[in-house]
Amino acid sequence: MDGILTLTHATERDVDLLLVEEFKCSPDFVRWLSVKVTKAMDSVIDFTLSDVIHSKRRTYNRREIDICLKLTLTSGRATFVLIENKLDTTEQFEQAESYRAEAALLVSSGEAESAYTVLVCPTQYARQYARFASKFDLSISYEEIFSFLAERARQPGELGARLQHRCEMLEQAITKSRRGYEVVPLPVIEQFNGKYVALALEKFPTLKPGAAMLKEGRPGESKTMIFSPEVLPSWDFLPQMRIVHQLREGNANVNFYGWGDHFTALAGTMGADLAGSPYRLVPTINKRANGKAGLMIVAETPSIDNVSGFDAQRADVLIGMKATEDLRAWIWAHQNTIKRWATVVAERRN
Q1: Which of 39, 292, 307, 323 is most deeply buried (CB count within 10 A of its CB)?
Q2: How many Å separate Cα 179 from the centre of its chain?
Q3: Cβ(96)–Cβ(27) under 8 Å?
Q4: pTM above 0.70, yes or no
Q5: What does the alpha-carbon distance between residue 186 and residue 177 come to, in Å, rounded to a whole number?
Q6: 224-226 vs 241-246, strand pairing mode
Q7: What angle do CA 250, 251, 256 make, to 5 degrees?
């Protein structure tokens, strides 16, 4: 069996789960990370208890914190470490900024005494996306975590073997970051995507699938159905837009690119126009210095797992598709309303 990989390749979720297990089960790992935060931030974190949550929802945002580590201090108050794990996916829109906004909100609301943002990624990733990495309070590399686990993996017995396996998985992730990798399609995801597209074409023919939905060999990390731009109107006052059904996050949304920069001016008008509808605005906090923040109209839908099989989730998929279609139809039916919104943006830009 020598030389045969245990995993075909490591994914971000694999590393997520590895980190969560270490935070949950290893006080030494928690202390190791807290010391790194302490040194980087010139602070003191004297804690007695720790707890960890994976994919924690932000307070005012549907987006998630990859890993939220809560440290209960000797004073009885709490420190939070908000961790974003990146292996090979690019920065999401305003991702680092929203982590910092959540940290600030935890402190200003009194829920935490302090809160820090941490990027965990391969060294190569931090170099390639240096600007993104610099927006976090500190970065911790996969290589550093590998070294910590490898030192403890020297002990004999089952624990040593388990830690050695974790090291091998991290090594695969590090190598993947350096060299890239060829996607190994998962049959269950391929089948899910195929059935999703077929059902959408049958039940909601106006929801024309986008190019990514029709692409073969999609990676397992992708959980967003991005429909064709033709689905939305092309009125001359509109910015670039897209409409999606986000499976795991459980929503359908239309994104108006660039309008998030004018959220304060738009919120009252758009909020009033959306009153009584199933839709809400997603506020953008701590926008990028160069602007271009998006503003989404969001409808809640059931959360769906594209690796758990399609047939058992068909009813929830239909609910999500129907919500996406209803949102599409709402946009088309409210041309004058949306033009008023566009006028507000245009006046602010002039």
Answers
A1: 323
A2: 24
A3: no
A4: no
A5: 20
A6: antiparallel
A7: 150
